[in-house]
Design brief:
Number of helices: 13
Low-confidence stretches: 1-35, 534-547
Shape: globular
Mean pLDDT: 88
Radius of gyration: 27 Å
Length: 547
């Protein structure tokens, strides 16, 4: 029986190979039951991708996250990154770092063409840097540490930083545009890049078609065309995906906390650069002691917040470093130990009274006099939250409940977003729930060294952050980030709570996908292809076992 079974299988494979041999795009596989056909002329080769309303197709200026993601199919950076945030040369061919770690000399790849057939060179990169530095773009803040840039020749770029910065390749992760691009008429801008897909036409009022860039330097994509379907809102995006009208959707265009995609799908999560934190005003008398700040951080159940308030759409933050980065240290969880928390509060002079509240004697007036006046200070605090953000309010409630239960009196102050922002800027707060997009090179300089939200500065922290940019080997880089993270957790200038997760959801007829990361939702689109089994979607397993 086995022999006859295998003979039938072999015959089926042979017949399929005969049929498929005439088409360059076909691929045939055997799965013990039925044959799989990929991208033949009888099956679709157009991929549908949902985006929201378009302000501009210029990736430097668009305010739409879905349009920005879609432009990754058209434009390319000097450096891209893998899922552990290791740099990969894209338009850069090679590079060297100066001895003082303040300059990069980058060799640009040659023989690359723009989609209009013109030559790409270093002048385009320099123009893009200047366009970013001297305008308000999606990358202006990231490039603020660049002090000079020049082109010694058409295929060499020199970049100088104002200080030694960690992971300088991440600063140069912006999409490169042609040197003719200006800030004028952004709404009418036709995107011309160097990537695997190029703009073809606006097919209808709500559909833009991209086609394969046949001049691309790597393997030509299997999927011949991509339609960008303009969808009004997240609800319409969810409906279109569930009705198989779009093939790919992201958590930026569909709320995964309130909608569950239907059908046979592949979900690829990644840790974004958006970090939510509990801000601490270090200038407030109750928080000047490092042990008080530590105690508050130990009382916060981050796992519970992520599970119950974020529905696990986040990853607990143990420092300001993205947990997916290869150089992020594995810091042990301190856990909850009530006795230990009381001990460290005692180091700052706090003790519990008969009512369970923490109090201490505070000297007022002339401290150097023979009989300084003292008053009893109560350990209490307020958490500032903007009233239009329900998620922040719920997080503040959880933190406030934990503090109150332990004996630290805590209340929540709800104000308008305008008032919230002004109070933080004026340092008129004690605690607040905030969120920040971390620099893609994970440099905490602006958070903790320059003028910051938290009225925090120590020379020791300054030196630790400075060392992040001075490493010469991977081992030194890991050690520098570990030393910084350990110092951060000793000082607790504020409390990182979590990094948000984002997701890319594919219909299972799309195979060859690579894991996304905080730099790019759509990675290696040239490797995507359709997999069809008897006109029904199937599920394929990649080499590493991931769906």
């Amino acid at each position: 029986m086995k022999k006859r079974y295998y003979m039938k299988i072999a015959l089926a494979v042979f017949l399929c190979l005969l049929i498929a041999g005439c088409s360059i795009n076909e691929k045939v596989e055997n799965d013990e039951q039925e044959n799989v056909i990929v991208n033949n002329s009888e099956n679709p080769t157009v991929l549908n991708l949902g985006i929201d309303s378009i302000d501009t197709f210029n990736p430097l200026f668009t305010s739409s996250s879905s349009v920005f993601d879609a432009m990754q199919l058209i434009f390319e950076p000097l450096f891209s990154f893998d899922d552990t945030l290791n740099p990969i040369c894209e338009l850069a061919d090679s590079y060297t770092v100066s001895e003082d770690r303040k300059s990069l000399a980058i060799k640009i790849k040659q023989n690359i063409k723009w989609h209009d057939g013109s030559d790409f060179n270093a002048v385009d990169v320099l123009h893009t840097i200047n366009l970013i530095r001297y305008n308000e773009t999606n990358y202006t803040s990231l490039l603020s540490c660049i002090s000079a840039a020049s082109c010694p020749d058409n295929y060499t770029l020199s970049v100088t930083f104002s200080r030694a910065v960690p992971n300088p390749e991440a600063i140069l992760s912006f999409p490169v545009v042609q040197n003719s691009v200006t800030t004028e008429n952004l709404a009418d801008y036709i995107p011309i890049g160097t990537g695997p897909y190029k703009y073809y036409e606006k097919s209808t009022s709500n559909k833009i078609r991209l086609t394969v860039n046949e001049m691309w330097r790597e393997n030509i994509p299997s999927i011949a065309e991509i339609d960008l379907n303009i969808l009004k809102n997240k609800e319409e995006s969810a409906s279109a995906f569930n009705a198989s009208e779009t093939d790919i959707i992201t958590s930026k265009t569909m709320d995964l906390k309130s909608n569950t995609p239907r059908g046979e799908i592949s979900v690829q999560d990644y840790v974004s650069d958006n970090m939510v934190f509990l801000g601490i005003n270090n200038a407030e008398s109750v928080f000047t002691g490092v042990n008080t700040r530590k105690a508050i951080s130990y009382l916060i159940d981050k796992e519970s917040i992520v599970t119950n308030e974020l529905f696990s759409r986040a990853v607990v933050a143990k420092s300001t470093i993205n947990p997916s980065a290869w150089y992020c240290p594995d810091i042990p969880n301190a856990g909850y130990d009530a006795d230990y928390i009381r001990e460290i509060l005692a180091l700052d002079g706090w003790s519990q009274n008969e009512n369970g509240n923490f109090i201490r004697d505070k000297i007022v007036g002339e401290q150097e006099s023979e009989n300084p006046e003292t008053i009893s200070e109560k350990l209490k605090c307020d958490i500032l939250v903007n009233d239009d953000n329900e998620e922040r309010y719920r997080i503040a409630q959880r933190i406030g409940d934990a503090l109150n239960e332990f004996g630290i009196e805590c209340s929540i102050i709800l104000v308008s977003f305008e008032d919230y922002s002004q109070r933080i800027a004026d340092k008129q707060y004690q605690l607040f729930i905030g969120e920040i997009k971390m620099p893609s090179n994970m440099d905490p300089y602006d958070l903790l060294v320059s003028e910051n939200y938290f009225s925090y500065y120590t020379q020791q922290m300054h030196e630790a952050i400075y060392r992040l940019g001075t490493y010469t080997t991977s081992e030194e880089e890991k050690n520098a980030f570990t030393q910084y993270a350990n110092l951060f957790n000793e000082e607790v200038p504020f409390v990182p709570l979590f990094f948000r997760k984002e997701s890319v959801i594919f219909e299972n007829r799309i195979s060859g996908t690579s894991k996304p990361n905080m730099f790019a939702s759509y990675t290696e689109p040239q490797n995507w292809y359709f997999t069809v089994k008897n006109n029904n979607t199937i599920q394929e397993e990649s080499a590493d076992g991931n769906i």
